[in-house]
Design brief:
Blueprint lengths: L1 H4 L2 H33 L4 H15 L3 H11 L9 H27 L2 H9 L4 H31 L14 H7 L4 H30 L4
Helix pairs in contact: 2-3, 2-5, 2-7, 2-9, 3-5, 4-5, 5-7, 6-7, 7-9, 8-9
Protein name: Amino acid ABC transporter permease
Family: Belongs to the binding-protein-dependent transport system permease family. HisMQ subfamily.
Membrane topology: Multi-pass membrane protein
């Protein structure tokens, strides 16, 4: 217990760092995931190709490699940002590929006739997707999106290796101070557990309210 009580501010700073990464990267992932899912089912071929390439590359690229590409590659093209923003960008883009596929699988559960009926009434693709297809698809993709965001919270630990303040990175300081490494990691695990259980609770409430009854 001394590890926590004597270093509460350090743990708190790491916890807030992980929480911020999770929140901002989740928002970016949801927005990009929605856009890419729309691209993948769009009637325009170039959009479908772009969405497919985006998902294929990011789903098959190790997240650590993506961090290196963003942190070290983008500054070479003149884009210099704080490491925290680079971490949000890497996490958000990576997770958006999985959000996209979850949404696309939900879109595929909506009967084709729904879209055809909407188009026969004169609705555009955007109107059909936003007003008819996605509201129905959303109900079936709540659990997989929740699981994906929980994975994002745990993946944020990689950011600590790139000088970003987050929970896992606190072990380096505590190890140098001579604290028991086992208890150091126990309290780190508790911090991640709090975040992931909070996400799980939110999506459980959403599923009970809007999810598909099975």
């Amino acid at each position: 217990m001394d590890v926590l009580t004597e270093n509460f501010s350090l743990y708190g700073e790491g916890f807030l760092g992980t929480l911020e990464l999770t929140v901002y990267a989740s928002a970016l992932a949801l927005v990009l995931g929605f856009v890419m899912a729309a691209f993948r089912v769009a009637p325009v071929g170039s959009f479908r190709v772009f969405g497919t390439v985006w998902v294929t590359i990011l789903r098959n690229t190790p997240l650590t490699l993506l961090f290196f590409a963003v942190m070290l590659g983008l500054p070479r093209f003149g884009l210099v940002l704080p490491f925290e923003l680079f971490a949000v960008l890497a996490l958000g883009c990576y997770t958006s590929a999985f959000i996209c596929e979850a949404l696309r699988s939900g879109i595929n559960t909506v009967p084709v006739g729904q879209g055809e009926a909407a188009r026969s009434l004169g609705m555009s693709f955007t109107q059909t997707l936003g007003a008819v297809v996605l509201p129905q698809a959303f109900r079936s993709v709540i659990p997989p999106i929740g699981s994906t965001l929980i994975a994002l919270a745990k993946n944020s630990a990689i950011a600590g290796a790139f000088s970003v303040t987050e929970l896992l990175g606190t072990y380096k300081t505590l190890s140098e101070l001579g604290y028991n490494i086992v208890w150091t990691f126990v309290w780190i695990a508790v911090g991640y557990l709090i975040i992931t259980l909070a996400i799980s609770a939110v999506f459980n409430v959403m599923e009970k309210r809007w999810g598909v009854t099975r």
